[in-house]
Amino acid sequence: MVDLALNEAYSAVASREAALKRFGRSDARFRLMTLGAALLVVAIFAGLMMSLISGAWLSLHTFGWGFLTTTIWNPVTEKFGAFAAIYGTLVSSALAMLLAVPLGIGIAIFLTELCPRALKRPVGIAIELLAGVPSIIYGIWGLFVFAPWFQQHVEPWIIDAFANVPYLRDLFAGPPYGIGTFTAALILCIMILPFISAVTRDVFETVPPMQKEAAYGVGCTTWEVMWRIVLPFSRAGVVGGSMLALGRALGETMAVTFVIGNAHRIDPSLLAPGTTISATIANEFTEALGDKYVSSLIALGLILFAITFIVLAAAQLMLKSLERRAGGKAA
Amino acid sequence: MNRAIYARRRAVNSVFLVLSTAAAAIGIVALVLILYALLKNGFGGLSAAVFTENTPAPGSAGGLANAIFGSVLMSLAAVIVGTPVGMLAGTYLAEYGRHSWLAFVIRFVNDILLSAPSILIGLFIYELIVVRMGHFSAYAGMAALAVIVIPVVVRTTENMLLLVPNTMREAAASIGAPRSVSIRAITWRAARAGIVTGVLLAVARISGETAPLLFTALNNQFWSTNPNAPMASLPIVIYQFANSPYDDWHHLAWAGALLITAAVLTLSILARLLESRQR
What we know:
The structure holds two protein chains of two kinds. Helices cover 76% and strands 1% of the residues of chain A. Chain A has helices spanning 10-63, 66-69, 83-114, 117-132, 135-161, 168-171, 181-204, 209-217, 222-233, 235-251, 254-259, 277-284, 291-330; strands spanning 73-74, 79-80. In chain A, α5 crosses α7 and α10 runs antiparallel to α13. In chain B, 79% of the residues lie in helices and 0% in strands. The chains are: A mainly alpha, B mainly alpha. The interface between A and B is large, with 90 and 92 residues.
């Protein structure tokens, strides 16, 4: 560019050079700004981790590994153990997944294969709106509408039905409280359903139509096409999407806090009140007195962070590998 | 042809098709039931007082004005802080980093933050700001919400910038535009609708967030515009009122819930319209 300007006046060359330099400087500045913002994301993540570790230090130092396996949670004697909360978190999320994964896949099948074209968009949007409803709304609905109905009309029936079945009898025992681990799991299930069905529908749509048509061509039923062609092809996506949903369920706070009952104990019955890590923190943090109490609540947060990190990282890696595969195919 | 096998396959097929239709029905019924409960219980509580009066003591009349103000103020501040950071970071990932290992790490961390439990972000800001300042404040609430906004905006910005055809960047380079100018004047502009969609979705997400505000902004029963003091917000007031034994608080909680849901659903439908118009 400077060459082109040679036959012009020297001042023009100089001003061009200056302009180029200015451009170069502003370019570098802009690049640095974007890099700084990007690094800020990493800094937030690192800060989150560090603050949890430093906050939890006192508690972990006092209680050691026993913190993970002790059930006692007693603010008065300042003895704390995370086991009841961890147990409640894992059980409610596992139950929610058990219900939501088949339902979510069912919805995705309905949307991709069965739904009349005219209904496809409205039904899809309705399911996605379900994902947009804030969790506090699920909480208030669960507390005032779902739990009372569940207590009056469903729980007595479940308790009666399983009264004479070994094992199940213990899982569904006790008076119908309405609120409890099972109710929390059902609310969680409704909450994560749209995540699973949205991801599943998207990966279903990446299945090459040729493969499906070939299967239909040799006389497969719709179900056989889904089960033998579409699901195996999109397995990684379905599992990845489900794990993203699991990450949500594990950390979900408000919806669970309202309906789980907040009892620090482990009851074999799913209908009994329990607690989760996030519900415990939400309920007790602002009222916690004493360093050990606060630190133990942050230690619970650290455990939740570790669990969700593993689940989300695994989900990320699975979905990434899927993307790479899809990208490779397209190229 | 074996008729028994044929009949069985058809039977299995219809059973599963009915089941998956039922699954879709369950999802829709759940949405309808929730919206119905919100309308039924929320409309009764809605009145002019909801918007003009502050949160009452139990037993007396009042509204949600201070909570609505707090929610709007904190969400706005969080978006104003979070959007530029998120846009710049997303721009780095899409325009400069792309395939570098640093971009890979940032992308990974960002996606974890995107789905990390929001209550942990509350704990983080509590440790970072509340403990150091010695008191709860709306500033801390804004920071917590901004931390939630950033990953959402990063993700959508990157995705939208990647959709911009490379020929546009090449055209800009060919007329001698420096890279930063071509990004700001060409690629950002081409991806504008998509980025706005992302920001709208982020607003929708934070306006219903409760957990990160619990121990950052806390709550305030009175009208307060001081960002250095605790501030009320709709989700926290709903949480407090719904868990109380008072009927009139319950009515206000439902009214607040209706307001939030209406706002959030309107935002996400707007975002969707914008998105579909762009395509």
